[in-house]
Please model this.
Amino acid sequence: MAFILAANFAPQYTQWVVPDPDKAELFRRAQAYNHKTAYWPVQLSHRGIRLPRELFPDSGRIPGRAKNPPHIISMHMFPGVSEIVRDLIEEFEPDVHQFVEIPVTLKSGEPAPHRYSALNILNIVDNYVDFDRTELASKDYPGMGRKLLPVSAFEKRPIYVDKKAIGRRHLWRSPEISFAITVSDALCTRMQAAKVFGYNFINCVEL
Model:
């Protein structure tokens, strides 16, 4: 079993970081870095490659009122993960993914209660969704193949995937599932035991 991490959009869980420099400047830097490729700049985080520090925010501020923000937050192009999530990922896949620690403050100006890092997921898995068995809505995109439409955090129907394509990975993205963050059963179990909150876990049945 694998699980997609789907954002729970309840106000107490959904937190976006206002980055410094601002999004326009980060977008400009991504364009400059990415000018020789066909990728849209924000898709740099979907390519499974290590990226230079300049493409990550220098710092960030959570504008919401939550004093205890979730362990996984939105940090411009990247998910931001707390030290608890980072340590779990490193335990399962040491030195596989790219983490860049970003100082984050609350609306009050106080430091956030977690030490957040921007996470660049370097495992990419493609051609592994069984669209015939999966009941969720999908669409064929010219030149890009078939893809699931964005998955609701409250989706109960499973997604059927190819176990062999996943291999021994514990954390990955897939272009077939809107590059959603997906974790193994083992990593999901440890995250739940650590009371990581802010995301719902959607079942992926491995065939």
Residues 11-120 form one domain. The chain has two domains: 2-6+124-206, 11-120.
